[in-house]
Write a structure and sequence with these properties.
This protein is α/β, with parallel strands linked by helices and 191 residues long. It has one domain: Rossmann fold, CATH 3.40.50.450. 45% of the residues lie in helices and 16% in strands. The chain contains 8 helices and 7 strands; from the N terminus they run βαβαβαβαβαβααβα. A 7-stranded parallel sheet has the order 4-3-2-1-5-6-7, sandwiched between helices. Strand 1, helix 1 and strand 2 form a beta-alpha-beta unit. Helix 1 runs parallel beside helix 2.
Length: 191
């Protein structure tokens, strides 16, 4: 695992444990020499995550659309900052540059990015691991919703099981390192 894309909030959230988790994730990525790929912001969990990676001598690639750069939320001290034209281009480039995907607490944008990358995996557009870092039970209701979706036959069990969930970033990365994509003739070789 050379790089992981982290989806997370541009807000710090209500619980201080979210910021602490983002800082821990940043430290662990840097210590393991795993490059952070993220949305490029200097605010909220996103900013805390990037600052932590940089403070521990890690590498950070941010990807931000022009309209957000003009709102002065782009982090100016990253290893690399790609400025793109649209949110669609942002998500495409994040997917190309990452070897895996993790969601930390966040809002609608975080969930939208997570579900798009899960859908791409389901459709066979990438064979990369996807997971949730379930900080202080943040994703408990989402997991229950997905279990209901499986019960109601809108989500296949194998697609639900492909979402790695853990409360510990070290364990989640270990699961990513051991991950083997299911055999699927739809996988597209991107290398």
């Amino acid at each position: 695992m050379k790089s992981i894309c982290i989806y997370c909030g541009s807000s710090p959230g209500a619980d201080p444990s979210y910021i602490e988790a983002a800082k821990t994730v940043g430290r662990v990525l840097a210590e393991r020499k795993i490059e952070l790929v993220y949305g490029g912001a200097n605010v909220g969990l996103m900013g805390a995550l990037a600052e932590s990676v940089l403070a521990h001598d890690g590498e950070v690639t941010g990807i931000m659309p022009e309209f957000l750069v003009s709102k002065e939320v782009a982090h100016q001290s990253l290893t690399r900052l790609h400025v793109v034209k649209s949110m669609h281009e942002r998500k495409r480039l994040m997917a190309e540059l990452a070897d895996g995907f993790v969601a930390l607490p966040g809002g609608m944008g975080t969930l939208e990015e997570l579900f798009e990358i899960l859908t791409w995996a389901q459709l066979g557009l990438h064979p990369k691991p996807c997971g949730l870092l379930n900080v202080n039970g943040y994703f408990d209701h989402l997991i229950k919703f997905l279990e209901c979706s499986v019960e109601q036959r809108f989500v296949h069990q194998e697609h639900f099981k492909a979402i790695h969930v853990d409360t510990d970033v070290e364990k989640l990365i270990a699961r990513f390192d051991a991950y083997e994509a299911p055999h699927n003739s739809k996988w597209i070789d991107r290398e």
